[in-house]
Write a structure and sequence with these properties.
The complex is a heterodimer of chains A (117) and B (185).
Chain A (H helix, E strand, L loop, with lengths): L2 H24 L3 H27 L4 H25 L3 H28 L1
Chain B lengths: L2 H11 L2 H12 L2 E2 H8 L3 H13 L3 E6 L2 E6 L8 H28 E2 L2 E2 L6 H12 L7 E3 H9 L5 H10 L3 E4 L2 E4 L6
Antiparallel strand pairs in B: 1-3, 2-3, 4-5, 6-8, 7-8
The chains are: A mainly alpha (117), B alpha+beta (185).
């Protein structure tokens, strides 16, 4: 998988989550719709990161993306721990959704990195 | 149930997944994974919904061996909305009246003594009703005793005594006073 295909994957996931959010909202499942919006946002963030990497580091975009994959979720993990400690289940659910999306992106990225070696 | 509690409950129930969870629990108590399987939702999503339902008292949980089992709280969902809307107007008015009463009392009374007799009738009636609490129903009070009781609140016991009779809190006959009501007319 190339960086271009990785970006296409991210964009496709973003589109899927956005469409699911609309469907869920129309089905009176507003909280689940919001969960999909949160997921969509994470895929969007990494689409921007990947496109930036492609533009700024055309020789080695993967290094830049890998660094972002490691650093960006740090704050979410801290936020999750704090929310669980304070029994703020809404906040905790949001952070878990972000981290779950992050895990999926990381898995896909690792496939990309392996293939490019 | 207060207005705020009702709004919170109705907002929580305004979700299809949560209604389906409640329908499932109406049939039998269940743990998260069972609900997730039945409703084709992920366990974290089910847990999220159950937390929301638990917050408004619609469901409760208990530990059974390794599982947390959820059950419906029928009493929380038994609210009669028609009855609520019929009473809520009165309830709101009662709350407003009570708040006004407290405000008047704190403005005009200090350490159980009346600072001054209000000129406004509505406020004066609140004060007179408060003083009237010092009297017992079913007891006859000679005028001297009435004066002493009222003087505890304010020196102008004559005016207050006359006003209490005037608004129907006390009745007077041959110099004997009886408490008639706790509400001024």
């Amino acid at each position: 998988m190339t960086i271009t295909e990785f970006i296409q994957y991210l964009e496709a996931e973003h589109k899927t989550c956005t469409a699911q959010a609309e469907t869920l909202a129309a089905d009176d499942r507003r909280d689940e719709a919001n969960m999909q919006k949160i997921r969509a946002n994470i895929f969007d963030v990494f689409t921007v990161v990947s496109k930036t990497a492609e533009k700024r580091f055309p020789q080695n975009p993967l290094g830049f993306i890998k660094e972002r994959i490691e650093t960006i979720p740090t704050a979410w993990k801290q936020s999750l721990a704090a929310a669980e400690e304070r029994n703020e289940y809404n906040k905790a659910a949001t952070e878990r959704i972000k981290l779950q999306a992050m895990d999926e992106i990381r898995q896909k990225f690792n496939d990309v990195a392996r293939e490019s070696e | 149930m207060t207005e705020a509690e009702l709004i919170k409950l109705l907002k929580c129930l305004a979700d299809k997944s949560r209604l389906r969870i409640l329908s499932s629990l109406a049939k039998e108590d269940m743990y998260v994974e069972r609900l997730a399987e039945r409703l084709d939702l992920s366990p974290p999503t089910v847990s999220f919904h159950l937390k929301k339902l638990e917050e408004v008292g619609a469901v409760k949980s208990r530990k059974e061996q390794y599982y947390t089992v959820y059950s419906l709280c029928p009493e929380a969902l038994s609210i009669n909305l028609t009855e609520y809307f019929g009473c809520s107007g009165d309830r709101k008015q009662d709350e407003r009246d009570e708040a006004y009463r407290i405000k008047v009392l704190s403005s005009f009374m200090e350490y159980g003594k009346l600072k001054s007799i209000p000129a406004q009738l509505k406020k004066k009636n609140i004060i007179l009703e408060e003083i009237c609490k010092a009297f017992d129903f079913g007891r006859s009070y000679p005028e001297k005793e009435v004066n002493l009781i009222i003087a505890d609140f304010h020196d102008d016991f004559c005016t207050i005594r006359r006003d209490m009779v005037g608004v129907g809190l006390l009745s007077r006959s041959n110099g004997i006073y009886i408490k008639k009501s706790e509400r001024a007319t």
